[in-house]
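Page 47, continued from p. 46.
Same chain as before, 241 aa.
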Amino acid sequence: MIAACEDAAGTPCPPLTASCRLHQEAGASSRRENGHGTLESAVDGIGPTSRSTAYSCVAVVRRRFKTRDNELAGGDATRKGSDSGRHGGELAPRDPSVKLFGAVADYLKAKEATANSKRTIEFDRERLEIVKRLVGDVKLTAITRKTIEGLQAKRRLEGAGNRTINMDVGALRQVLRRFKQWRRLEDDVKMLTEAGGVPVGRALTVEEQKRLFEAAASNPEWEHVYCAAVLAANTSMRAWR
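Result:
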């Protein structure tokens, strides 16, 4: 059996799944032929045993997301025809001419059909009315990181708290997601710090990391989750990072 990795605190990971082990030799061969990619480079700095485990998991994670990308690509191709043939006033998700006011109305109409309570809809409506007032009826494709930072700044001048501003941006995010415009922004848009200056998100404790590994390894269908957790714990989720 290939030894499992362990983190900086000495907490061992669960043993590799069978598929991870099968990918280890193939992954090593591929690295020799093709050189290191981004994921492979990220694990170069850890110990030999952990690095071997992590490389095995890189192969599984890459395979999983390649399959997922192919599924999404197929879905996009299927949707192109249905988008062009829509009727009844519903807006096409990727139409570059869609403006904010129309997108908000479309989003709220769709939510009315699925929301569990009227209050949920009213909450989004209230938040989006503020967004409409401060951003204007611009094309969704014209909304940028600076647009959202401007919205945050204007709300601060109005006296809104960080949590309230985050809810406004969160409502706008849902509209942009519906129209396939959020992905280009998600890495650049930063939510404001809440709860008295404590950042949202934190490193896992040793006990939490142990529970994560055990849960991810408990189901063969979650193999990619286990492997992603191993990679994250060994490259970017240590307590001092």
